[in-house]
Task: structure prediction
Amino acid sequence: MVFELTYQIRVTDIMEGQKWYEIFLNKAPDFIPHEGFAEWELIPGFWLQVAEGTASQGSGPLRLGVKDLKAEQERLFSELHIEDFEVFSREEVPVKWGTFTDPWGNCIGLFEYIDKEEEKRRIQTILGRVDV
Result:
């Protein structure tokens, strides 16, 4: 039984990487166990690890669900100067999505549920909360 998840992204400069991901995630790391490594718990049981090293080309993308994709896209344009981030949708797909890369070439995607009731149900299931 799987009960927790970590996903690691590598950056060539941990200080710059940590700074970039702090802005991207709107929060400081939750855990820095040692030099060259930082972790954020994005939702209970899901940890994003940023480690100093060589980025893995062709892996990912790591896709993260957000409530307002357009607002996040605009924030990333403004705060991190992400330029190549186009939003897509297809009639048969229940989400709209976009993908971009961090400065180290790691592929990251964001998505938003089109049906807001479905989004609310997913958040309640994942977080175990009814106040969403």
The first helix runs from residue 14 to 25. The mean pLDDT is 93. The longest strand covers residues 5-11.
